[in-house]
């Protein structure tokens, strides 16, 4: 398999690429959307893409759309430390085959590519209801996504001060 790893975390890129290369895969890495799209234009044989949802100043969803336009048969896996139901649904609608939360091992990533079709009928909702903190975090992520990542516009939409929103965004999401 030919992989393209798109992540702004250099350590993650190098570790994952070394593991995949040891397993016999060809791997290329990119740290931003411009590099990634350049590699996609140069190499039509990229079969799988591991894409971080939030790069420094870019949204992985916009990069996902561009990759699917350039290489429509390429499988794209979204990997993120800031998961929410709204971004997962949006990623799948845009053509991602799966959506994983960080940290994820190389085995989990490879399995996510191969098991995306077998999990279509499985429920993605947890058995217990989400906590109020989790629901608040997901709502903020949904509104932030609707405002294309603009924090000021999101703060106005939510009726809160911009700095308060920034503090909430710096926190990791709760599990439940």
Helix content: 40-55%
CATH class of the largest domain: Alpha Beta
- DSSP strand (E) fraction? 5-15%
Backbone structural class: alpha/beta
Number of extended strands: 5
Number of helices: 8
What is the fourth-level CATH superfamily of the largest domain?
Response regulator
The run of helices and strands is: EHEHEHEHEHHHH
Shape: globular
Rounded to an integer in angstroms, the radius of gyration calculated over CA atoms is: 17 Å
Mean pLDDT, to the nearest integer, reads 83
Question: Which second-level CATH architecture of the largest domain applies?
Answer: 3-Layer(aba) Sandwich
Give the termini separation: 35 Å
The main pleated sheet reads as:
5 strands, parallel
Summarize the structure.
With 176 residues, the protein is α/β, with parallel strands linked by helices. It has helices spanning 10-22, 33-42, 60-70, 85-93, 106-114, 132-146, 151-158, 162-170; strands at residues 2-6, 26-30, 48-52, 75-80, 98-101.
Layout of strands and helices, then pairs:
Elements: E1 2-6, H1 10-22, E2 26-30, H2 33-42, E3 48-52, H3 60-70, E4 75-80, H4 85-93, E5 98-101, H5 106-114, H6 132-146, H7 151-158, H8 162-170
Helix pairs in contact: 2-3, 6-7, 7-8
Structural summary, described in words:
This protein has 176 residues and is α/β, with parallel strands linked by helices. The protein has 8 helices and 5 strands, in the order βαβαβαβαβαααα. Helix 2 (33-42) packs parallel to helix 3 (60-70) and helix 6 crosses helix 7 (151-158). Strand 4, helix 4 (85-93) and strand 5 (98-101) form a beta-alpha-beta unit. Strands 2-1-3-4-5 form a 5-stranded parallel β-sheet, sandwiched between helices. It has 2 domains: 2-114, Response regulator (Rossmann fold); 132-170, Orthogonal Bundle (Arc Repressor Mutant, subunit A), CATH 1.10.10.
